[in-house]
Amino acid sequence: MKIRACAVGQILAGTTALCGLVSLAWADQTVSIGTVGPLTGAYAGYGKDSENGALLAVERVNAAGLTIGGQKITLRLESQDDAGDPRTATQVAQKLVDDKVVAVVGHTNSGTSIPASKVYSDAGIVQISPSATNPAYTQQGLKTTYRVVATDATQGPVLASYAAKKLKLKSVAIIDDSTAYGQGLAQEFERSAKSAGIRVVSHEAANDKTIDFRAVLTKIKGENPDAIMYGGADAGGGTLAKQARQLGLRAKILGGDGLCTEKMVELAGPAVENVVCSEASAALEKMPGGQAFDTAFKARFGHPVQSYAHYAYDSVMVIVDAMKRAGSTDPANILAAMPGTQYSGVTGAISFDSRGDLLHGTISLYDYVGGKRKFLDQVTM
């Protein structure tokens, strides 16, 4: 009504240009937040889950109403597909920069988060990954990189310690998928396993598209290790576990968060009962807002959380919190507010060290019983 009154008054006064400026001042502002992950390809399940988590956060913020600096803000989520490919990741990162997003939730994979981070850094845009665990992501000296999960520098050692102390394993063969995530996790695990007294009989490299592990598994069968540690995602890990069982290997299958998914049951079949995996986070049911989030997520999307939806959700909320504290939606001001983050989210207390790593991260351990993932233990760092 005020805008209309202004318009009528200014038209009568012959100053319609001024009225246009006043109208703009009263208009709502739409602010875009980017989200990137693999929406196609082998990692699509992770990417879609994170996208849905970010979308739920945006919808809830808009429903509740958001005012920054006295102006009503409507959030818009701009989603991009990097297909889990590093080159594509830099291309879609540049598109988000060109589209003037104020911050980015992503990327999902370490191997895409790392190359894309330079693009966001050059533009001065905050990047919060809900799932990238390779330590190198935040060790580049960039001021724009943040993550809301623990790193492989803690996940690898915790998995190795559990293997030595709880599972009483004496020997292990290692296979990684040659990605930044899989290779990084495998290397951290190997160092810690050796320190814990576990003998590493071999370390083989595959790739993230490998679907036939029988040749390397036959070689490993001759080495007779107590366990096989696989650094990679469930698409490869599930196949590996199934083929190991078919070849008569009794070795435990160990893996990180890439294997710790509900989809592993489908991919590995009965062989999933032989899998022990770690996750760079607390168990959803043990998080402060975990159960309520899971209920809301199921109601919105028709299925439970698959992997990192709750972390993508909190990433959006951390960005909104930074906007509120900055009193601004300008990317530079959001970035300046990020180091002071003290946010209580679905996943727990979120604050960051000088590199952008999560303080007090948690590693959880699981196995699979009766076709269901079962919580074993957790370690808070």
UniProtKB/TrEMBL annotation:
Q: Tell me the GO BP annotations in alphabetical order.
A: amino acid transport
Q: What is this protein identified as?
A: Branched-chain amino acid ABC transporter substrate-binding protein
Q: Which family does it belong to?
A: Belongs to the leucine-binding protein family.
* Alphabetical list of Pfam families matching this protein: Peripla_BP_6
**Is the Cell division keyword given for this protein?**
no
Any idea which UniProt keywords this protein has? Answer: Amino-acid transport, Signal, Transport
Q: Which CDD domains match?
A: PBP1_ABC_LIVBP-like
